[in-house]
Amino acid sequence: MALALGRTAALPPALLAVQRTGAAYLPIDPDYPPERIRLALEDAAPVLVVAGEPGVVPETDVPTLVLDERAYAEPPLVADELAPTAAAYVIHTSGSTGRPKGVVVPHTGLTALAQGLVAALALDADSRVLQLGSPAFDISVAELCLAFGSGGTLVVPPEGPLAGQELADVLTGRRISCALLPPSVLATVPAGEYPQLRALAVGAEACPPDLVARWAVGGRRFHNAYGPTECTVAATVSGPLTGDGTAPPIGGPLPGTRVYVLDERLRPVPPGVCGELYLAGPGVAYGYLGRPGPTAERFVADPCGAPGERMYRTGDLARRRDDGQLEYLGRSDDQVKIRGRRIEPGEITAVLAQHPSVGQAAAVVREDRPGRPRLVAYVVGGPGAEPEPGALLAYAAGRLPAALVPADVMVLDELPLAPNGKLDRAALPAPGSGPGDSGRAPAGVREVTLCALFEEVLGVERVGADDDFFRLGGDSIMAIQLAGRASRAGLGITPRDVFTARTPAVLALTAQEAEDLGEDSGTGRFPLTPVMRWWLAQGGDATAFTQSMVFPVPCATDRERVEAAVRGLVERHGALRMRLVEGELEVPEAVPEVTVDHVALPAGAEPRQAAEESAAAVRLDPEKGEMLRAAWLDAGPGQRGLLVLTVHHLAVDGVSWRLLGPELAAGLAGEPLPDSPGTSFARWARLLAREAVRPEPAEAESAWWERTLAGPDARIAGGRGVGARRAVLTVELTPEVTEAALTEVTAAFHCGPDAVLLTALAAAAVRRRGDGTGLLVHLEGHGREALSRPADVSRTVGWFTTQYPVRLDAGDALGADFWQPGREAAGAALKQIKERLRAVPSGGLGWGLLRHLNPDTAPRLAALPVPDLRFNYLGRFSGGDTADGELLGMTADALPLGHAVEVDALVLERDGGRLCLSAGFSYARGVLGEDEVLELARLWCQAIEVLVEHTRREGTGGHTSSDFPLVDLDSDQLALLEDDLAFALDDEGDD
Questions:
Q1: What's the pLDDT band for 516 if we cut at 50, 70, 90?
Q2: Helix or strand or coil: residue 101?
Q3: Pairing of strands 628-634, 641-648
Q4: CATH number of the domain at 1-82, out of 3.40.50.980, 3.30.559.30, 3.40.50.150, 3.40.50.1240?
Q5: Which of 109, 106, 116, 85 is nearest to 282 (CA)?
Q6: Which of 325, 744, 928, 963 yields a CA-CA distance of 20 to 30 A from 934?
Q7: Where do the structural domains in the chain lie, given as residue ranges?
Q8: What residue stretches are annotated with the Carrier domain (predicted)?
Q9: Given this model, what pLDDT does residue 124 score?
């Protein structure tokens, strides 16, 4: 299975899930050119592509699964035991024919790698391992093995290449204790203490002695590792090195690995004599996928191993020292390494030779400036053709990974040949590399800025607007540094942009504003989100629109510690200090003074009641920047107190509270806070505003909403109730019904709790109304959906909630037959409602964008029927005394009703740990009577019980079409298939 997920938090669980099925995974870097991705897919022929978002891979016949919430909704499967000899993954390396070669690695290699590296680097369960490598680069495998093998933590930084100051910030900010880095990347990291960094391992290219001297300090373990992809990443590793000025060895073999230094006749050479490295043991790969010729050439019989064992011929030269340590001496063939990436010049040559203007091509690595290797291509034009270097570079950039794109292309009349007829590399001319070649001075602020950044990163003078970054000596690592510094200067470019645009002039035209790709400060003004615009339109007392939670305060906690914990939250999350200004929000750079009200609880006082009274008295004015108020209810010496946090709803939602609880607990305990949040709420709001006006998706999705909401009126109060005063009644299911509804029913019908609860609500509404076949309802979602631009809001505090309409229509299945025991209507209704919910695009996010932020689509959507019932399932909340806190709720009259009825359901933990589903039915006084709403609530509870009883009948439940996104089956076809399978299984049982 191909995993096109990039370096994200979604990759490790997806990778493990694939392996638990017994399949092998194929990592695909989404940043690779489409042609390179296509070649990898053709070569490996996966049965499925798993992508993080649509459009990541080029159009292919391979079924594609896009990960979203629904992808995780199914119950876990019981996997078979893994065979140690089964293939674990396929990673592609550079191939001399122009096509990458897929290396097939077994699970035995992963096991040996994890055990060997964890022991060599002395890692333990407290280790925090950096995931730096691209998933298509095999160093990422070693990083996973180090984290999982030690029981430590795998730290996944934001997507994109990292080097220089950006990498330094990650090392310190994420408290990294172990990192695997190519020496050229480590060399870009500025000097510093890095006290948490206990172990460093370098590899993938030669390590200079001065790098060891610089980093092997302060008790830090510094290791030099060696190993090709064909031997599961690492075959040898040195012991802890000291900066003694000598070339660091590549060490000795990992446990179980055998290393031979042989001559051309496969005879061992004495210590101190140069020979070719051969590797054997459990880490040796099976070979190259679908390529028996290259496999037989490189994977040869091991004369010292058991019958049938093979060893891998690396092509690397080495010698064994008297102490048994190995020294790396270079390559025996044309293969080279630049910045840690293994490169076959033949692959670049083959790609360039495919261009119609090229007759011959060659690619070599030149080091015209010490320590600055560059990949240079030379071409000879075909008959009547005049190759243009810029066009060839663009052609290569569209077909090769960034590391394989030449820094320069030179056009020659002919390629120089040696007397033996081979390419004479020494006779190839050096490309021009002097600054100021273009002769044109920069014009405009962007060009001036970029020219200055070129000079700063490259260490040259007088860069012109048309000077080429790579002709000036740039490389892939410097491209990362340039992108980072451009971001801080207000220009958003990526390292790939540098490879394709190459000059300040072109980069100035293509760079985006810093707020798009640059540093996310989380401050400044930004637009209101859709749910906030809806809230403003409702009117009411804005100062009472608050939510409160109460948290336990450990004994012997002083006031200074409590205030520091609350201050840490405000500093960390800009939403907690933002201000409503002229219809926009603003987060100031300066953190306001944070105070905590100290309330001494009298003896015998009920803490919970005191907390509720404290929260009820709080008023917060968003126009004054009042977003948070804290009160410490101090029970006295030796007693645990309570901390009441009241936050304006503009700054918090249900997910946010789940984030704030552990962070506050860490602050109260004096522990460091978890990893920093990703995308700020301010940036998220700006991204939403841009997402709303993207032309193609806006038109397509607005048409979907118009089609979906058209039809007969399916409301419960004719659309009345907006702005009315609120009354509330609460119903609660028994623990037995709660457990059955949320486990048995969801498992039988392969759905989430929301589908069960909404089916029951639709059935209750139809029965109370006495007519119709469905219900028009507003639903709420968490709102943290994927956008067209990258954003990580999984740890961001703010009001992300989405609100969107859905027509819950299941035809006659919601009628009288739903309530009849022994009928199929209840199950049929649940399946249809489940399908309608899953058909909503982007988790409903698009409705708010198009309804409130897009001036073209807003009028059309505003004319559609507005639901007069809202439903929100909040999930499970603890019943009390935990570090995560207890929700006290929102003042009942804080917000005028936007609907005739608003249902908020959640699962509460009662005494003894039993779970009960509780639902508050807020209703519009004067529009619906209490008896009418009580009847609706009672029918809803009964409908849930009907679904439970239906599920307990034999033969109920089953799948729906959305459970099988890779095949095109309608409900009738699926039912026939399930019947056939059931018949076949019964028949087999009879036999």
A1: very low
A2: strand
A3: antiparallel
A4: 3.40.50.980
A5: 109
A6: 744
A7: 1-82, 83-326, 344-427, 444-517, 524-673, 685-965, 966-991
A8: 441-515
A9: 92
Query: CB-based contacts of 10: which residues, under 8 Å, 6+ apart?
Result: 52, 67
The rounded Cα 488 to chain-centroid distance in angstroms is 23
Q: Residues, the chain, total?
A: 991
Q: Which two tokens stand for residue 576?
A: 């907690």
- Determine the straight-line distance between the first and last CA of the chain, rounded to whole angstroms: 36
Which pLDDT band holds residue 308 (cuts at 50, 70, 90)?
confident
C-alpha separations of 633 from 612, 644, 662, 966 in Å: 11, 8, 19, 56
Write the CATH number of the domain with boundaries 444-517: 1.10.1200.10
**pLDDT, tens digit (0-9, with 9 covering 90-100), for 665-681:** 888 888 877 666 778 99
What is the pTM assigned to this prediction?
Answer: 0.53
The contacts of residue 267 (CB under 8 Å, 6+ apart) are none
pLDDT of residue 518: 45
Partners of 585 in the beta sheet? 526, 580
Mean local confidence (pLDDT), 8-20 = 88
Specify the CATH class of 83-326 in words: alpha beta
Report strand pairing: 2-4 vs 26-27: parallel
Q: How far is CA 473 from CA 205, 211, 436, 454, in A?
A: 19, 21, 13, 10
d(CA 130, CA 194): 14
Tell me what the pLDDT averaged over the chain comes to. Answer: 83
Query: What is the per-residue pLDDT across 85-115, written as a single tens digit (0 to 9) for each?
Result: 889 999 998 765 557 889 999 999 999 999 9
User: Is the pLDDT at 987 greater than 50, yes or no?
Assistant: no
Residue 893, pLDDT above cutoff 60: no
CA distance 398 to 34: 7
Specify the CATH class of 524-673 in words. Answer: alpha beta
Could you give the CA distance from residue 980 to residue 103 in angstroms, rounded to a whole number? 41
CATH architecture of the domain covering 685-965:
2-Layer Sandwich (3.30)
Strands (E), 733-784: 774-781
Residue 767 identity (one-letter amino acid):
R
